[in-house]
Design goal:
This protein is of the alpha/beta class. It is built from 16 helices and 19 strands. The protein has helices at about 45-55, 80-90, 110-125, 135-145, 170-180, 200-205, 225-235, 240-245, 265-285, 290-300, 305-320, 325-335, 350-360, 370-385, 415-425, 450-455; strands at about 5-10, 10-15, 30, 35-40, 60, 100-105, 125-130, 155, 160, 165-170, 185-190, 210-215, 235-240, 255-260, 345, 365, 390, 405-410, 435-445.
Amino acid sequence: MADVTLAFEGGTVRVEAERDLPIEDLPFVDPDPRSKTYRAPAFRYAALRDALRGNGIAFDDRVLDAPDLPDLRSDYELREYQADALAAWEDDADGTRRPRRGVLELPTGSGKTVIGVKAIERLGTATLVVVPTLDLLDQWRREFEAEFDVPVGQMGGGEQRVEPLTVATYDSAYLRADDVGDRFGLVVFDEVHHLGGEGYREIARLLAAPARMGLTATFERPDGAHEVVADLVGPKVYAIDADELAGDHLAPYDVKRLTVELTEKERERYEAEQEVFTDYLARSDIRMRSGSDYQELVKRSGSDPEAREALLAKQRARDLMMNSEGKVETLAEILDSHREDRVIVFTAHNDLVYRLSERFLLPAITHQTPTAERREILERFRRGEYSRVVTSNVLDEGVDVPDANVAVLLSGSGSEREFTQRLGRVLRPKTDGGRALLYEVVSEETAEERVAERRR
């Protein structure tokens, strides 16, 4: 006879005791005076079961309505490092069974999707895969349809169809998590660092799935939100970087930094704008030692015209150093010396993308590019009809980018994640065994030199 009944209700686990038990002493459980029961967040379901068992309390578990999948078998064979990653997710270092929770950090192009597919095979339970973009939604769905003979559900891109094997965007999963939170035994978060966003965290909180896998090329977030993700999905249990895979599983690569001078006119304008910014900081006693200092400046700009002008001056100086004429001329030299190569040019600003597109007759992809046009450009790049593409941040992640062997980073942020993702775009193994090459083009004697050091 069960002492306790567990049931899923609106993103929570309802805990009903059949007799007088110290339920409030269990971890993560709070009384619910309205229903005269107890509740725990859905994501604590696995820990709650363990606590009940540890206290010798018999329970009737009615939480999950997650059917078993049929016997699934893909044609994939795991590489050694992929098998190690999956084993780390399944087992502790001492060989004991882990609760199948955790984040796997592997570089772009290393086959993170394959590991997710194999985890689904191993568990054989209803699975939800959550992705940040419609491109990734299509990629995962096509992958499942090619490997498995089962219906594949989709939430996002105009569809809201739930199957035991379903792919959803973060946005759709956020809207539906409390409705479908009991339907899956495993959830896979692709590009799991997105889960650190304040709203998206609710997806993981409202799902009861006891097995959880996060996939990413760079787990840590500068805002520290990866610690929240670790609580919701599990800690980082495996990591391998591009250097360890280069030459065997990824293309060997070189990173070459090129420095360019500002023109005399650009230098004069840059120094003037920087002076406006630094003078205000000195008068206001703002040190700019952390993100909170910058937030303080942004806050002041709402009521202080001088603070606003300082911010605008900083932005104008940044635009000058990132979009300098010297960078454009250097790109001309790079493109000329790599006529036979497949080249992706990355910038931080759409204006520069269109400027380069017009000057060098390059196909351009930005957030403003319609989905159909973007797919056509990438397909032509894949077929070899185009040998070079210029883009802003839209190709950093979440898009299946065809093989290239040269990347040019004309401008970007100090984010290690952004740098890793852009490098990953040229790291897929080459059929000719050649090396990949990433150029960093940096305006010398500007703040961009510090930006480049941070991302490296």
